[in-house]
Design brief:
Layout: E1 12-15, H1 22-36, H2 48-100, E2 114-115, E3 122-123, H3 128-144, H4 156-209, E4 224-227, H5 230-246, H6 248-252, E5 257-258, E6 268-269
Antiparallel strand pairs: 1-4, 2-3, 5-6
Helix pairs in contact: 1-2, 1-4, 2-3, 2-4, 3-4
């Protein structure tokens, strides 16, 4: 591990977004690149080419994530409407079947409905899965009957259309969910790399351009610079000094943190911390 403490008594610290905040990380990386490329080539950060490459890789995944999320959301909303149609269709079917067989109410069981033994009433299915199973049975039953005996309403064609529409919309929703998950995993990994590069690039700027001082000029590169309270800065500096006296070797070789202003919480780190 490796820790490099810079400007421990600084009145500022720099907030680095969490890798899970992919859009923010992406925008901060773009801001870094945009400003850095305005500088003469000899003054540009050595991390800029890598950030450009990461942005190029991440862009299609973020676009796919948004598209798949929209696809999933639209399909889910459509399914809510289809669920209402499905319930009404089955209600209508049960009424038509019972009306045509008043002398034998249990006849509805041939269309997939169940009868409560205690009351003799129809037990209506609940939930899309159960209702689709009944609808499928109704379709099969109607298809097995001569055309002249089939119900005029709801008509067999409308039953088939509803069933197919629900199944297709479910497939579309599931495809959107899978695509969203896949693009999220890929973009998250790239976001982690961008965060690491932003941390390392920040350490480079502070050490090489700003003479080891944290300054609001970092905002030009898209960093969020926040002022610390004097008390917090003093307490953090004392904590660092105490840690150095008791564990000196480990404060210079730690697990990848780049502590730019003197604390474990206020860091530019390369192992998942969220602040520098």
């Amino acid at each position: 591990m490796f820790t490099c403490i810079l400007d421990a008594l600084s009145q500022y610290h720099v907030d680095i977004p969490n890798a899970a905040e992919k859009s923010i990380v992406y925008n901060r990386s773009e801001a870094f690149i945009t400003f850095d490329l305005t500088l003469p080539p000899e003054e540009q950060s050595p991390f800029t080419p890598d950030l450009i490459d990461l942005i190029d890789q991440c862009t299609p995944y973020l676009r796919d994530f948004r598209n798949n999320e929209a696809r999933r959301t639209i399909a889910s909303e459509t399914l809510k409407q289809l669920d209402r149609r499905l319930k009404k269709t089955l209600d209508d079917l049960s009424l038509v079947i019972r009306a045509s067989h008043l002398e034998n109410p249990s006849y509805v069981e041939q269309w997939g409905f169940e009868i409560k033994q205690s009351t003799g009433n129809v037990s209506y299915p609940t939930g899309r899965k159960q209702r689709l199973a009944v609808l499928k049975t109704c379709i099969e039953k109607e298809q097995s009957r001569p055309e002249e005996e089939r119900f005029k309403s709801p008509h067999l064609d409308s039953l088939i259309e509803l069933y197919n529409e629900i199944k297709a919309t479910e497939a579309d929703r599931d495809a959107g969910h899978r695509g969203r998950k896949k693009s999220n995993e890929a973009s998250l990994e790239l976001s982690k790399q961008m965060v690491d590069h932003l941390r390392a690039a920040g350490a480079f700027l502070i050490s090489r351009r700003f003479k080891f001082k944290i300054t609001r000029d970092l905002e030009d590169w898209g960093y969020k610079v926040v002022k610390r309270s004097a008390r917090t800065a003093k307490e953090e500096a004392e904590a660092i000094e105490e840690a150095a006296s008791t564990n000196g070797a480990e404060t210079t070789t730690t697990n990848g943190d780049l502590n730019l202003n003197g604390t474990g919480e206020v860091v530019l780190s390369v192992n998942g911390e969220s602040k520098l």
